[in-house]
Each structure stands twice: as C-alpha cells, then as structure tokens.
Amino acid sequence: MGGGMALLFAEHGVTVCLNDPSEENMDQLLATAKKDGLQDRLEKHGEYEELCKNLGSPKVFVFSLPHGNVGDKVVDGLHPYLSKGDVIIDASNENWENTQRRQGKLVPQGVYYIGMGVSGGYQAARRGPSMCPGGEEKALDIVMPLLRQVAAKDSQGNPCVGYIGIGGSGHYVKMIHNGIEHGMMSALAEAWQIMNMGLGLDYDEIADVFGRWNDNGELKGTFLISIGADICRQKDEQGRHVLSIVEDKVVQDVDGSEGTGIWSQLEAVRLHVPAPSLTTAHFIRLASAFRADRKKTKEAFGGQFSVQEWGEAKKDKEAAVEGLRQAVYAAFLTSFIEGLNIIDQANKENRWSIDYSAVVQIWRNGCIIKADYITDMLAETFKDPNADRDLLHNARFAQELKHAFPALKEIVGKGVQYDAVIPSLSATLEFLKYSTNTVLPTQFYEAQLDYFGRHMFDLKSEGLGKPETGKHHFEWKPA
Question: CB–CB of 218/324 below 8 Å?
Fold first, then answer.
C-alpha cells in the first residue's frame, strides 16, 4: 500500500522522500518508479535526520505501517526533528485509540497527526484510493488539496475524500468500513456456494450471474460483485479456474495482519449495538482459519453436514438466482445499517462531529464497499444533517428491506433444509425479525434473570421504558 501511494503522489508531481527499514523494499520501489518514468520524483533516505532535512516546511509525512507499536516507534524516532506545524498522516489500518493517543502526545510540540483510513487495496493505492482522514481541521486544510488530487473520483468526477471529523474519527470510520466489508463478503460468498453446490452452476455461469447483478438493479455498481465475476472467470496457465485451487481459509484476523475486523466487532459489543450480519461474518472467518481443527471435528462427527443439491429449486434456477440476488442485497444493506449504527454511537460518545455526507462520498468509489444503489440512498438521506442515523427508522430503507424479506426468508429456509453455510444471510434475517418485533422471547429471559439474580424487570403496563434497570422484583422462590 505504501509503495503504491508513493508512486501515486509522484505521478501527481510531488517529490517523495522514502524511508523504510528495508533497503531492498526501497530499491524495488525505485526500480518500479523508473519503469513508470517517475525516477526523478522518488529518493530514498536511510536516517530520520537526513530524511527531515530534505523536506520542506511544513514537513508532511505519510505512514503506511503495521498496526500497533510500530507507529509509536516511528513517531518517537521522528520526534527530535519535528517542528511546529508539521503534519503526520497515518495511512495505516491503525486502531483509533492509538491515533488519539498519538495526537495528544504531539500537541505540546504543535505537530498535527491525522488518522486516515485508506481503502481499495493495493491496486487503488497506486491508481487512486478512497481516503478517510480525521483530525484537526487546520491540518486537513494543509493536506486536503493534495488528497483531493490523488483520491479516487466518483462518476461525477468528485474526489472520494473529505474531512470526516476530529480525533480518531478517520480511522474509526475506516475500521467500521472493514466490518461492513466483511459482512458483505460473507453474504456474497454464501450465495456463491449455494449457486455452485446447491444449484449446480459452474464458475463461468456464476460469473455471468454476478455480471448481470452488477449491471442492473439494487446491486448495480457494487465492487465486490464486480470482482466476484472476475474471480469466477480467471484461469491459470494450465487452464484451471484459479478459484478451484484456493483453500477455504481466511487467516488475516488470526495472523495479526488485520485488526480492523476484530476491533469493529468489539466496538459493536462495547457500544451495545446489535450487528449480527457483521459479527457472524467474523466468526466464520475465525472458524475457517483453523482448518486442521475443522478436520478433527469432522472426524469426531463421522462426517460433515455437506451442502446438498437444492431439490426443486434446481428446476427453476432463474427464480432461485433472483431470490439469492434479493437476499444478498438485504444482507448488504443491513451491513451498512449496522455499521453506521456503530459509528453513530461512537460519534456521540467521542463528540467527533462526524460529517455523514462526507462518509458517504468517501464510500462512493475506490473502496471495497462501493455499492452505487445503496450510497445513492445514503446520500439522499444524509442531505439532512438532522436525519435519524438509525436507518431502520427510515421509511425508504424499511421499504427496501421489507421488499427483500420474503426472498431472504425463502433462501435461508432452503439453506437450512439443504445444509448451506449461511451465517450472514441467516443473521440478517434474524436481525430484521427481532429489530421489528415488540413481542420477543426475552420476556421469558428477563423473568429467568429476576428468578436467580434479582435483576428486576419492567411491567408491560408501564409503557416502552428506557434501557435501564427495572423497578420490580418478584420473589419466585424464597431464599
């Protein structure tokens, strides 16, 4: 990512001074720059002092580092050479709390620290990513002209970057972007397996389905579906579909290379925001990573619950595929809603003054969760700065989900019947059921808590009430 962004800045006329612990990494990047005709705009520097002497004023640094204490070490190393007004842009997938801690640490020195999430993968880093910066407005004023120049552009030519809010809001929003991404990816992967193993479609046929989904309707212009078609079609030099030899392991959470998925789930729980479409997507990632454990469990069970052919649905594949399209759309839209609810609660807690219109603009292109139909709805809604952030309360979004609900319900029902692996699709269905329901089984749950724990309860006759301890206890059994 860092190398791609260095070349991107150079391509836009910026002289980039490189620093990396690996001399080899810098040499490889300089060789690439030479191929691209950019060799005069990149130069490498081995020591921080030398690096800083070659920068103008104010000095602007762009980090692309592993999350965690690496960033602290780099900030400490630069500290003696920093001056008032210098700007550090942390373009890593860093934890937002680390960002805010570093911002506070640099305040006495008058140095600005911008936490900027960058999305789109290494290809976008080179050609123009979606960027999500947060921090002091004065700092953003310094760097925003450059960021607008290199950012991805939407269909109208507008840059997919904007001032998100203060503090660690930029990294926070990018973290939740990744949580939404995981929910969407899981739902689409579930649909792919149903089409392949349940309906008997081959990879090329599924590629055609994804192509149609991406061309029209609610899933039009969705990045993940677009690349899904590419993935299903791609063959290697031996003529095999590359997808056919890919193991079913997602390890990025377990190997430490990716933290945002974990943090986004922790934030949902910490802030008491139900986000099951995102959370179950994370759980299947974790289970998938430990393939050896799954093999042992399979042996203990004497077999696995294999995906079966979808019986009568195979006779009308067109109808089944349309049902899947609507189910995937419901899961995608719900993932956005759940993610935005997490952001909203964090925004209230931290008083970041997040600009939701800017968030939507950032998500319009260059990012993994690009979904034109959904972002059009979001943009229209957030034109009103006082709009209710919980989009389940919004009649337009409710109508969209209500329309897709029967198809989602049918797909989940068939998935259960034929042993399809459908964590995000089924979690989306349950989320919509209990979010719209005022008669939940938690009535009995609450009574159990009061029985053994004297946790108190509200009375139905008292109205809606708030999420706080009830005023009543019944002595179910004397102590």
Answer: no
In the block, which residue shows the tokens 């409710």?
Answer: 398
* Active-site annotation, residues: 174, 181
Would you state the structure tokens that stand for residue 437, as one six-digit string?
């329901």
Smallest Cα–Cα separation from 407: which of 321, 336, 287? 321
Contact 7, 33 (CB under 8 A): yes
Nearest to 254 by CA among 226, 287, 302, 292: 287
Q: Which residues of 100-117 are buried (b: 16+ CB within 10 A; e: fewer)?
A: bebbeebeeeebbbbbbb
Q: What backbone torsions phi and psi does residue 437 show, to the nearest 5 degrees?
A: -105, 135
Instruction: Tell me the sheet residues that pair with 460.
Output: none
Strand partners, 159: 153
Please report, in tens digits, the pLDDT of each residue of the chain (479 residues total): 678 888 888 888 888 888 888 888 888 888 988 888 988 888 888 888 888 988 888 999 998 888 888 888 999 999 999 999 999 999 988 999 999 999 999 999 999 999 999 987 777 667 788 999 999 999 999 999 999 999 999 999 999 999 999 999 999 999 999 999 999 999 999 999 999 999 999 999 999 999 999 999 999 999 999 999 999 999 999 999 999 999 999 998 898 888 898 999 999 999 999 999 999 999 999 999 999 999 999 999 999 999 999 887 777 899 999 999 999 999 999 999 999 999 999 999 999 999 999 999 999 999 999 999 999 999 999 999 888 999 999 999 999 999 999 999 999 999 999 999 999 999 999 999 999 999 999 999 999 999 999 999 999 999 888 899 999 999 999 88
Phi, psi at 357, each rounded to 5°:
-65, -40
C-alpha to C-alpha distance for 119 and 287, rounded to whole angstroms: 25
Burial of 82 (0-12, 13-18, 19+ CB in 10 A): buried
pTM over 0.85: yes
Measure Cα distances from 336 to 98, 125, 331 in Å.
25, 23, 9
Q: Rounded to an integer, what distance in angstroms lies between the CA atom of residue 378 and that of residue 380?
A: 5
Question: CA 153, CA 248: separation in Å to the nearest integer?
Answer: 34
Which two tokens mark 342? 């997490």
What angle (nearest 5°) sits at the alpha carbon of residue 110, between those of residues 105 and 115?
60
Six-digit token pair at 473?
């206890």
